[in-house]
Specification:
Number of helices: 13
Structural class: alpha/beta
Strand content: 15-25%
Helix content: 25-40%
Distance between the termini: 41 Å
Order of helices and strands: EEEEEEEEHHEHHEHEHEHEEHEEEHHHHH
Shape: globular
Largest sheet: 6 strands, mixed
Oligomer: single chain
Amino acid sequence: MRVRNTFKGGVHPYEGKELSQDKPVTEYIPKGEMVYPLSQHIGAPATPVVSVGDTVCVGQRIAEASGFVSANVCSSVSGTVKKIEPRLLVNGNMVKSIVVENDGQYTLSEGVGVKRDYNAMTKEEIRAAVKDAGIVGMGGAGFPTHVKLTPKDDKAIDYVIVNGAECEPYLTSDYRMMLEEPEKIVTGLLVILKLFENAKGIIAIEDNKPEAINVMKKVSEQYDRIEVRVLKTKYPQGAERKIIYATTGRKINSSMLPADAGCVVNNIDTVIAVCMAVCESTPVMRRIVTVTGDAVRTPQNFSVKTGTNYAELIEAAGGYKTEPEKVIAGGAMMGMAIYDLNVPVTKSSSALLCLSKDEVAKYAPSACIRCGKCVEVCPSNLVPQMMKEYADVNDNAAFEAINGMECYECGSCTYICPAKRRLTQAFVKTRRSVMEERRKAKEAK
């Protein structure tokens, strides 16, 4: 099959990247207490290995994975464990969390920062280092990376894809990392390629990032197994299924894993985290977060220690120049509107988007006019109009029958709909309902 550089469907929303794309990443030093949720990943919550009153150091494991699909949690500061209690997350859930009083000393835990040669390490040692570091997918999904790097057959993996598309509007954190730390990206990719001897590395970048393309090509040109692939700029180009198709021509559906198509996909910050874990014995303790939007005085990118309070980042960006009508954790398309900034930065945090106007609130949804635009833009070739009809009457069986579970909630249909119907929200609810039904049916067997 001919390899494409894009996919059918998709939309071109206002990018908004000019607000922060030229702002180098600056390190933010937190002021308040640090909050570490035990559920920062897909899978079982981590189990605390510290108690209230314990002293912890930077990089120390404070909670460990409670199963294969789970992830360790490490402290990003030194200090004292104050509480272990439920705390609010951006999704509105109260999640058991470890609260650490930061002593401001940043005393390193023993072994953190020790240099290692990945070429002298076995596959098992590399995977163990990734697991120990608590790395998860930092593109938002939060899937434990050590699981993704442990397919049934290493030799069946043909491509290791680094997702540098960053197609979500306003976000520029991955773009800045490609400009500022390209060597770590390439090294992280080389580490992963050591696990898959038959694989080729592809760094996939949309064509609206020419500077990043040039930098990554220059840094990777000496490696025969690595290629920089330029993709057409279109949302949701960075979706896992779409980027696999755009770079390899291979297709997967909701019942498949990328490994089933011979692929492993990781985003930019995840690959950097692999480099830091394996080569520098450093666990996940920071996220690059874009603080942006027309309501922010100085949009920019921060290197933020996990556990930092979101409200501090607004202050660090100069505060609001106008009171926002909407604040979103993440990007404009797939981010989540939040009502309280008293939430912690986690491994899957990517952006804080502050908008002076809530454009969605302007419009009241009306009846479907059957224009077919939602069908045209759906990257999964679905019929959102029919899916919405079944979702509205809670007909999960019919929703499944028309492949509604292939939706990955990108929001393209909602964005394009002239009737301003809340399509994606209905699909999110119905998909969760179907998955809950499946879980109960499985437990009943």
